[in-house]
Amino acid sequence: MRAEEVLRRNDMGEWTRAAPDLYPHQWSWDSGFIAIGLAHLDTARAARELTSLFAHQWKNGKVPHIVFNPEAPPDSYFPGAEHWASAGRFPDAPPAPPYTSALCQPPTHALGALRVWEVAREKGEEYAGRRFLRELYPRLLLWHRYLLTERDPEGSGLVTIYHPWESGTDNSPRFDAALESVEVGEMPPYERQDLNHVDDPAERPTDEEYARYLWLVELIKRARCDEAKIYEGHPFLVKDVLFSTILVAANEALLEIARVVGVPEEDLVLVGGWVERGRAGLDDLWDPELGLCLDRDLRHDASLRARTVAGFAPLIAGDLELARLEALLRTLYSPYFLGEPRLRLPLPPSTSPAQRRFHPRSYWRGPVWPVVSWLLWRSLLRAGESERAEAMRGAALRELAEGGFAEYFEPFTGEALGSHEQSWTAAVALDWLAHDGAS
Ligand code: 9WN
């Protein structure tokens, strides 16, 4: 099946389901990537991917991590709309139904919006492209402001997450230590649905992890999503470096969008300041020994030491001093990551094979995720490392040509895992293909 077909089959009209069976709803950070892919097929449809998501933005600016499809078959995803229905009555929630989750995910949206504009301009669709950016800009600004205020009362430039699902890299070992200290309380019994859609339960998080995930949801609901209350008592509060660096990249994109839209100077100063603050925050979390940037557990005031792709956050944030860029590239091409001799292709495993609790088939504990390769490819390009970027793009396209548009891949064998028609995988493939000859 071709990338374009995957997106067409998952197209629900105004939005795209993340995958046909496993994920029949609209996911937030997936939509940012999906817009990037759709831009190459139909810029108007790509624009609607984002405007439809932002129609469910919360009053405080939060963009929900899932917008539930009222037409999805009952019990197709857990926790689904019923589980989140009470969140629809919280003070900041948007009108419901459709219901949304009360969590959020990394802000890929400005990256998507900017790509839509770039392609629209190339195609001579400037008028419609600019109209779209004018419509979305205030919403993007509100979203980023939420992340840099409610989720960063410290003013560190780094985003605090309340749940591993907010990171988008759910069961990454980087959260093990913080999650292990979460004690699960009394909850109604529940039935997982995700295991019905994969070949092997080892590809998904364990039951213990799931229980903690649901308990954290329960606590957020009990706090009625009151951010100050959550900050005070929640057992899982982590400064997430991957989330934070995507926000830096998104703020840079927002600056470009702001210039196209023509906004007051004070907006440019504000957003430019956010970019600087984010980079400085990442700098504070640099670990010279691992040659990576590390998340911080606020509850236990401790650094979360793990070798995962999230550690390359400063590369994604860009504008690095030469010494830091070289240190990051050394780690990336070392035997901990791309230099690991067992890798089938030189693509970044989500977790280093040398890391404790690495698992080559389990979700974010080892498999290669094409969207992460896309983020690193883009970062290498922007750092002027065009040969390395090109090698990564070539390897990634080869993996997809052989294994299809899977959610993730076993790093040593290239076996396709998880969902097999994953929208964002097809989307980044389209962007890579559009880059042919452009480098
Ligand atoms: C929970 C949809 C989402 C991605 C996440 C990925 C996975 C959900 C799940 O699927 O998470 O949000 O049920 O496992 O980890 O990054 O957005 O593709």
Record the SSE blueprint.
Elements: H1 3-9, E1 26-27, H2 28-39, H3 43-54, E2 66-67, H4 81-84, H5 109-122, H6 126-149, E3 160-161, H7 164-167, H8 176-180, H9 207-222, H10 227-233, E4 238-239, H11 241-261, H12 265-284, E5 286-287, E6 292-293, E7 295-297, E8 302-304, H13 313-317, H14 322-332, H15 370-382, H16 386-403, E9 408-409, E10 416-417, H17 423-434
Antiparallel strand pairs: 1-2, 3-4, 4-7, 5-6, 7-8, 9-10
Helix pairs in contact: 1-17, 2-3, 2-5, 2-17, 3-5, 3-6, 5-6, 5-11, 6-11, 11-12, 15-16
Q: What does this protein look like?
A:
The chain is mainly alpha-helical and 439 residues long. Helices cover 47% and strands 5% of the residues. The protein has helices at 3-9, 28-39, 43-54, 81-84, 109-122, 126-149, 164-167, 176-180, 207-222, 227-233, 241-261, 265-284, 313-317, 322-332, 370-382, 386-403, 423-434; strands at residues 26-27, 66-67, 160-161, 238-239, 286-287, 292-293, 295-297, 302-304, 408-409, 416-417. The protein has a four-stranded antiparallel beta sheet. A two-stranded antiparallel sheet has the order 1-2. A two-stranded antiparallel ribbon has the order 5-6. β9 (408-409) and β10 (416-417) form a beta hairpin. α1 (3-9) packs antiparallel against α17 (423-434) and α5 (109-122) runs parallel beside α11 (241-261). The radius of gyration is 20 Å and the shape is globular. The structure holds (2R)-2-(alpha-D-glucopyranosyloxy)-3-hydroxypropanoic acid. The site of (2R)-2-(alpha-D-glucopyranosyloxy)-3-hydroxypropanoic acid has 10 residues, from α2.
